[in-house]
## 1
Amino acid sequence: MAGLFNRVRNKLTGRRYLISTIRKEDGAFETAVFPANFLYLPQGFRLSNPCLVRQSREPAEADELHRTLSQRLQTDYPERLFQEIASLEKG
């Protein structure tokens, strides 16, 4: 997996997000969600303040997380989804 990148518009709130999954090092992947403007560019061009960051060890796990976020972010409330994903990481 070289890297995944999706643009998503939430149907409930109308907000736009960028979802990015990259390989950080051997065996480590990072999935991040950034708020975006109407051109799907990160708001203020800031990549330092994502809404959500999640680390994965397996490529399949990172791919599944990316797909799940892309699908659910279209239909669920973003804050609830981010809380749910963050609580899965802690628990």
Note: The two ends are 27 Å apart (CA to CA).
## 2
Amino acid sequence: MISIDRVLEQVKPVLQELENNEKISTKVRVDRNAGIIRIYSEGSDYVQRASSGLDDMLELAYTTAEHHPFWAVLYHTSEISKVVLEKWESQLTADQISEMAWRCDEIKMALDRLAGM
């Protein structure tokens, strides 16, 4: 048994107890390949979960050195995704759309550089 499964064995009874005793419902998602268990409250929706996952991607983009060949693609796509998720239930402003278009140009240039490697 891999260690993530052992952790999950220990977590499930605790979550079940919360459900039974305190009426707190949760959702559990396991990514065995990454060794990650995510626990969501019943009130979280797809946009909130996507935003949470994006936080990890943004952290990688912010901490990766600019000289890494994939940095620009990761950084600009993350920033576009962040704005899209923040505005999911509303409208994008003209400035936000303009910034996303600029970021798309930056992504295109980065991809062109990668293709030339």
Note: Strands lie at 26-31, 36-41.
## 3
Amino acid sequence: MKKIMIVLLILIMMPSLWADDVFSKHSLSINLGGPGAVATFEYQYQIRSGEKSGFSLTAGMGNALLMFSFPVGFNYTYGDKNQLLIGAHFVPLAIYSDLFGSFLSADSDSWQIAYAFSPRFGYRRMITGPGGNSYFHIYFAPLFGFQGGFFPSGGIGWGVYL
């Protein structure tokens, strides 16, 4: 009976020995650039992960002098190590209008809240190493203001799976 239990345990644990592409559902990335920002921190939660595709929800925070962005949205990735990155984000912005004028908003207060939409198109390279799994990505993420206005932006960054 003991031998049968040991054989069953070994059979149950064997697939994990060959599972070299297992990534955590949670990741954090730091980006130079981003939707309406000079630097962005972003959290990503992987909802679905297939052999070649993945779908994740993201939330982040960015800063560009006296303009703060809070992109919330989703990313879709397709590929193995080299991935196509496509996403869409709703981006609330806190803008100091004395510095940025009436960019993306018609209000005239010193601090104003503006809302924008930001599609994301880019490339992601998965990196598997002894310290854990990580990725490098580069993307184009222009801002389209809901009250008009357009701001071309993009980002380059590195992320790590937790």
Note: Residues 2-18 form the longest helix (17 residues).
## 4
Amino acid sequence: MTAKMQERDMYAKKTHKRFFKKREPNLTTEQKVERFIRRNSQNGFFTKVSTISYKFDVSEDTAWSVVGELLCSGLFESIHDMHSGEMKICESGKTYAILDFERKRKYEKYKEQSKRK
């Protein structure tokens, strides 16, 4: 193939790329936050309320109002961190499972640090 033919093939591939791409509808901030919290819960993590404001570039008031709406819906639960007092959110029914995951992660981290010494 000559250089011109290769260039033409590359151009043809680029123009048709957009037709094969699935487009998702634009989500509202509330929907993005909800998906983020669900994903964290499924992966065994809590979501701190303070994280929402800077992750999604919204004010703290907006973050708290979104969290309030999610908690009122009954699909999410909250818990406060014993050390920092910060509010954490997760899906309903997963609070104790995530606490157990956190405990195991801390234990593993402690075990690794004690091995290094």
Note: The domain at 27-116 is CATH 1.10.10.10 (Arc Repressor Mutant, subunit A).
